[in-house]
Design a protein that fits this description.
The protein has 681 residues and is of the alpha+beta class. Among the domains are: 166 residues, no CATH class; 92 residues, Immunoglobulin-like, CATH 2.60.40; 164 residues, no CATH class. It contains 19 helices and 27 strands. The strands form seven sheets. It has a seven-stranded antiparallel beta sheet. Strands 15, 16, 17, 20, 21, 22 and 27 form a seven-stranded antiparallel beta sheet that branches.
Amino acid sequence: MQKYTFSSFILALLTTNYVYAENGPKNYAKYYEISINSVKPEGWLKQYLNHQKKGLTGNLDKIDYPFNSVGWAAKEIEGNTSWWPYEQVAYWLDGLAKTGYLLDDDKLLNKAKLQFDYVIKHQADDGFLGADIMRGDGNANQWPHVVLFRALMVYYDASGDQKVLNALLNFYQKIGRTFLYRHIREVGHIEIILWLYQKTGDKSLLSHAIKIYDEGNKLNRNRSASAEQFLSDKQVREHGVTYNEAAKLGAILYQQTGNQVYLDTSIAAYNKIDKHYMLVDGVNSSSEGLRGKDPLDSHEACDVADMTWSLGYLLQSTGNASYADKIERAMFNAAPGHVTEDFKALQYFSSPNQLILGNNSNHNHYMRGNDSMAYQPSSWVKCCPGNINRAMPNYIARMWMKDAKGQPVIAMYGPSTATYDINGEELKITQQTLYPFEEQITFKLSMKKKITTALTLRIPEWTKSPRVYINNKKLTDTLIPGSFHTINHIFSPDDEIKLNLPQPIKLSHWPKGGIAVEKGPLVYSLKVDTLWTEDHSVSYSSTHFPAYVATPTSPWNYALAVNDDNISSLARVSYSTPTNNPWSQDSAPIQISLPAYKVKNWSLIKTNKVSRLDDWPTEKNGIVQKWNENIKDVSGEYTLTPPLPEKSSLQSRLSTDKEWITLIPYGATKLRLTIFPQAKK
């Protein structure tokens, strides 16, 4: 990737000759989404969505404000004076609609369509959609439209309802032309504008998107979520979700312009995330600002949905398999780790190491000591209860893609079925697998007659000695981990392809001498026996959707007695009969036993005073002010997860008795120790 200064970046943009296809917009992406109607989850993925249906996704409107308000289905939300509730409701509607389409569930779809249809039917003469409170400019007032319009994009693609497309075009051709898009989040409108450009070929939409991107980056050049800062080596002081929402925009612009400069900004942005802020479970730290890689760093639930959504654009633009690896890691670890197994409660903040979760146990700098880490049916920050509903539906919809010729690209894995049109012939492909809990994926092909097509499979970077079989005959092609492999073949009805992806066990290394255990795309955490106590002191807690206090009832203060050389030989891996709910601690299908020693004098922290960042840092002239300006000491009773023991004293604090402890997949744990101290005995 070329290195840019900001001035050379601007010059490169100004001197680009954009290419337009004669018969519609040229698209420079390597891979493309297919219709959500063409994808159907099976196995544990379907069960996960059914939990969403019976849990928060299908019932948020019965749990808490603003989801129990009229939302977008009225001129304004009652009792509201800000744009925030519209953003929060729109996140939920996006996840609600996608879950409905994937499950063919009319009840969920109709609940979402009620608000979609109201917005479209009540479009103002000047093209504006939604409540007048969002007409103001420069303070992210137009940001909620981006969130809602993403849901409308899916609504249109699934339904073909021309009224949806017309309403969005009318919005951007009229009132949308007058917006200044000053706030860095408002620059996100280019995601919708470029989608419309691809649908219509209207070149003025592309010009408008480029103008918004360029002017927005100039106005916000001092913010970490701007193109200039993405391309710099500077550390980030930015809200995690804002960073993710802005970081993807260059990749989207690249798809429509072919300008490598745009793509380079997005690549650089996520290289910076990997280097400084990526946690072991696959999502960047963000509480709510980007923090670091400490075992106690956390991310908010919004980042799970927003980071994986954004990485999907980089995957499409580059065809780089590493982005699919990253999405899977987040979705198989952080996503289920953020919610209870029945999807009836979530964490606002979630951490690799969290050993007490209650109303006084948030160990993060932001709002330390409050209930931000407890599993609850909502949270005091309402974007996360809405946004977490998008994560798994987005993953399922984008597992299956296509190349420029419409041929199948299976980018990510899990039990599901997709249908393709190959030169007028229907091709149905089913993934039969327990992946990521097993190494083999079987693809069953169904069609009426032979079809000649390319079929592209991802070979994850973490695997070793992968193998592909067609009708039990081993493919002799060289399969390179960390790449996509294309099979050109004449496929017959009922053909079967088997992909075997060995999942080696390894250690990863983290700050303060910490180590973590990984096997394939899964991270493993200590299995901690837990006492769950319902906490009905929370206003939105109820009998059917309770808030919880989670307390450990088994020892957790262990140091792992393994190293890079012996982890494979020492690990005892056991498998149990799989269920459709592998994210339950009681039915986790894989367990890993490893030797460990207890660490003396390593226990939960009990304190009567915490120093917390109490208020969100202010912003002046596009610059986020110093985080420590709002730190306050707060008295009370607090119980917090402790940091890792000091390396200098660790070995002297180890017990003499070696024990074998049980680790299970991260997503099946709620209380967990994931980053362990390392015993050297």
